[in-house]
Amino acid sequence: MPHLILSESRNLRFGVMTLFYFAQGLPIGLFVVAMAAWLASNGATEGDIAMIVSFSYLPWSFKFIGAALMDRYTFLAMGRRRIWLIGAQSLMVVGLIAASLTDPGFSEVALISWIGFVIFCGSAMQDVAIDGMAVDILPDAEQGPASAFMFGGQALGIAGGGALGGYMLATYGAGAAFTAFIPVVGGILLVGILMRERPGERLLPWTKGEASSESREAHGTEWLRILAITFKSILKRDSLLYLVSNGMLRTVAGAFVAFWPMFATSRAGYETFEYSSMLAIVGLIGSVSCMAIGTLLNVKLGPKLASMITFAGYGLISGVYLLAPDVAAIGAVFVAFSLFWNMTETLCTVCTNPIRMRLSEKRVAATQFTIYNSLGNLPIPIGASLFAWASGVGGSHVLMPILIVLIVLAIGIMSMLRIGKPVDHEEDAVPRVD
């Protein structure tokens, strides 16, 4: 069997990073798409769905803590990131095994939420590890193409996780659904065990090998100094404006993540598998389309204006569900709006990415970018909780006006950014990967 060494094969680098991003997408599809729809179709409340969404996204909100730990502590003889990658992927497998053994019913929302929390802790740490590995391993010329493959891999994972999870939940129940994912996630773990970052490194802790000179040199960075520079940069004017604006947007996004499966099953008449399959298809179409559309918007309009326009997409969706929810529940209309929602969510990320890149200080770009991404996930549970609260005091007639106000404020604050002006940025900085 040939050695699988990332630094020596471009195709292997692309394949491994796409594969691990695919693994990240699987639990998102399983929990946020399929599980949410399964629970909603079996009588779960808005608060139950909000709990599932919140527990799923919380680990992603604090992954910058994992990034700091990985930069400081590792087993260099196996590479800078691989021991963390193996550990994180193993946690996902353990979580799935535990879930399959407990076989929770649709009334055991708290248990399902905690199971999801454990699995998503693994996927969030895996994300940090594979991103760090990409920073360490990928040559500059491969950054763009690799990011596209990684993004595509995650989209495939979400689609596949939603479709497989929806079918298994509707047909066989939760235990069988979790069991179906174990060989897939376990197979990807095996890839992490069999590969190496650079020649001469140990395959496993007890095998022969030693740390590469590149790993030793990179690991010598003083991480407390990195964090100090990072937080100083984050507290600049444009950075704070971006965080407030994006926080409002992500709160709206979180509300819709919880709203969509409830509306699909209670108003649009979808069953679990029908909904998860439909969302998987529109997710694939939307993700592929947005890679081209987002690039065009950023190039032609610039990231600030492109972001403001895509933010407005959420305002349009909110307005439709406020004024004409019955029309939005009609079969073809709901599918169309599901596609529009998916594309809006994706485009908001694609168009704000260059802003986060430009705001990131050159010396600590990767760390600062990870913190921006983590803070962008924190409002998702807040939005889900807002959805649950509004459902108890008036439903869409209360929720949608609040979301519209948040979007208007987010666009207004985004318009105040002075991206590119020297007053806040001594020099532009572009991190190597998302």
Tell me what you see in this structure:
The two termini are 32 Å apart. The protein has 17 helices and two strands. The chain has one domain: Up-down Bundle (Growth Hormone, Chain: A), CATH 1.20.1250.20. Residues 420-434 have low confidence and may be disordered. It has helices at residues 10-41, 46-61, 63-72, 82-102, 109-137, 143-171, 174-194, 213-218, 223-234, 237-266, 272-301, 303-323, 325-328, 331-359, 365-377, 379-393, 396-414; strands spanning 4-5, 195-196. A two-stranded parallel ribbon has the order 1-2. α2 (46-61) packs antiparallel against α15 (365-377) and α10 (237-266) crosses α16. By secondary structure, the chain is mainly α.
Write the layout of secondary structure elements.
Layout: E1 4-5, H1 10-41, H2 46-61, H3 63-72, H4 82-102, H5 109-137, H6 143-171, H7 174-194, E2 195-196, H8 213-218, H9 223-234, H10 237-266, H11 272-301, H12 303-323, H13 325-328, H14 331-359, H15 365-377, H16 379-393, H17 396-414
Helix pairs in contact: 1-2, 1-5, 1-6, 1-7, 1-10, 1-11, 2-5, 2-10, 2-15, 2-16, 3-5, 3-15, 4-5, 4-7, 6-7, 6-11, 10-14, 10-15, 10-16, 10-17, 11-12, 11-14, 12-14, 12-17
Concise account of the structure shown:
The protein has about 425 residues and is mainly alpha-helical. The chain has helices spanning about 10-40, 45-60, 65-70, 80-100, 110-135, 145-170, 175-195, 215-220, 225-235, 235-265, 270-300, 305-325, 325-330, 330-360, 365-375, 380-395, 395-415; strands at about 5, 195. The chain is about 80% helix and about 0% strand.
